[in-house]
UniProtKB/TrEMBL annotation:
Designated name of the protein: NADPH-dependent FMN reductase
Pfam family, one: FMN_red
Originating organism: Propionispora vibrioides
Domain NADPH-dependent FMN reductase-like: 1-110, 209-328
Organism lineage: Bacteria, Bacillati, Bacillota, Negativicutes, Selenomonadales
SUPFAM superfamilies the UniProt entry points to: Flavoproteins
Amino acid sequence: MKITVLHGSPKGDISVTMQYIRFLQQQFPEHTFTVWQIAQQSRLIEQDEARFKDILRNVAEADGILWSFPLYYYLVPAQYKRFIELIRERQAEEYFQGKYTAVLTTSIHFFDHTAHNYMHAIADDLAMKYYGGYSAAMQDLLQTAGQQRLTLFARNFLAAIASAQATAKAYLPLIPVTHAYTPALSQPPLDPQGRKILILHDALPSQTNLTNMLTAYAASYSQKPDIINLRDLSIKGGCLGCIRCAYDNTCVYGNKDDFITFFNTKVKPADIIIMAGAIHDRYLSSRWKTFFDRSFFNNHVPALKGKQLGFIVSGPLAQLTNLRQILEAYTELQEANIAGIVTDEPESAASIDKLLYQLAKTGIEHSLQNYLQPPSFLSVGGHKIFRDAIWGELRFPFIADHQYYKQNGRYDFPHRQYASRLFAAILSVAAKLPFIRRQLYSEQIKEHMIKPFQRIFQ
């Protein structure tokens, strides 16, 4: 069979993900795996229409399509995202329709589910037959068990193609927002009270709803916020995955473009940051993805700690729970607070006006209060993954992260809770005796759980 591999690592052949593809080529020599370096050659593919059409022809001739990529910021790399946008922009969906497809990723299992959800939805939108996804930890292939599991996944994928296995869609087509939004209400302007407000957006002239929402939001303040269109910045390219920044947070791009200076002088000093964009496929634009990917020069350090973040989105966000979770997780893991999310989905312009005004009001109030919502599973789980990885296998090359984690008490492993462990060990032994176990697991355990709280009310 002919398998087309659309590879999404900016590092191309020398990426970890590519080693998984090479392994499959070795394990299944009777099948042809044609690899296209999508992310590494993204600019060439976009500028050279003949190159783009060569890929489409190969997709059309293939029996199966394998999307492979490393995870970058909860999703695919920005360069890969741009290719997915090109499929829509150039009306090339028909080449993918009806093709069996699977997804292969490498990561440390940090929000790999959101990347797989996204690609499954893209496959459904392209009317492909989605077989499934394989989310590998970066080092899995070095273990015999990992090799066996990957081989079995690929064998089953090939068998599904050969047998025309039935597949089910998981994502319904998006219903776009079609009504126009024009600001209708005028509210008394809010005093920022010294708070630095930054609005980041990527609006195009044709995106009038987004532009009007930005105008209405900015008008909520008595002083004009700093407004920056990401499309006006000189950004030479997306993150290259070179991890040059891992030693001291120095990006390989350096001063070759605007990004580092912009991030350090505009984004970091702001107290309230509004991120605004329109839905492109099932995410924001690849320009926004480039912003997130390039901000990785901060590595796994919360560069926006303590800030108020708000999101203004044009498009059907209510239908995109995966994207909403990404926005919420991004905020939490930055140790920032989400002041609100406003979309143009309400048909009433007055409703949108009120929501935008409330977003501005909440941002100021929470910033003055230094308010942060308590962490949820999104950041607690994410922190533990990073903590363990930086302590262990990623301590090198991520030296800057390791220094930050040591200095800021991030290595909060349970083994330091010696009193709790001793107490639990004693009770665990005591519970083996039936008469003590009956006492421990009676009403006493409920009373014991709330006993520490009683001093609050005394």
